[in-house]
What we know:
The chain is α/β, with parallel strands linked by helices.
Amino acid sequence: MIEFPAVEPGEDIRVSASSFVSFCECPERAAAHFRGVYSPDTRASFSGGLAHRVFARHLDRGEISPAQFEQACREEIGSSNLNYKVATLGLKPSALGRVIEEVGLLYERFKRLPDEGYEASEVSFEFEPAAGVTLVGRIDAVFDEDSGAKLVDWKTGALGEVELQLGFYAMLWAFEKGELPGAVEAISVATGERYCEVPTRTGVQETARRVSTMINSLRRSWQRGSEMERRGGPWCSYCPVLDGCQEGTAAVDVAG
């Protein structure tokens, strides 16, 4: 149903939703990711990761009581890569306790969201549309609705710009399942903001085109050994290659 455009030969590449979004924002920032240069872990990303684990646990096992909540959080930390981030971030017991309290407030909001039609959480996909190209992604939750599968992404902060990420998930689903999802939706548990759209064949095909353009651009850059275009924006504050970047420094200065 959806065709992935032909790509130029080159190094193997794994494209995720986050790397695709990063490339659309700033190609050189995405290139840094593929070189193994990542933004440092933050307390906010740790808290968000833990909240996602708690949300999935709730959907799969049922409501977590207040008396069991702290233990449930510690179990989720211990059974995931969050355990390593505790040391990386230097989270002392008191600081970890405050994170768990914050996640508890998010969980209280999350419990108010409807869960009718829930099918699965943290659904991973891996699809190879061309030689040396792998598209990967993990969808927070899938719900069964009359119009088809609804793919949902939970946000633990402000909703932000989510169209590119949701478009990537819709493309992955279409390639894997051979059909379009009925809807893709992002929900901010923190603010109550929601964004929902119904994917179209034209839209999904356009996302595939943009992904193929990204792959070709990166492979050409790797072959030449050259940097890619840099673009300034809100994402620059946490960019791992901000030093020496005029566009990024200017964007950070404007943001204050």
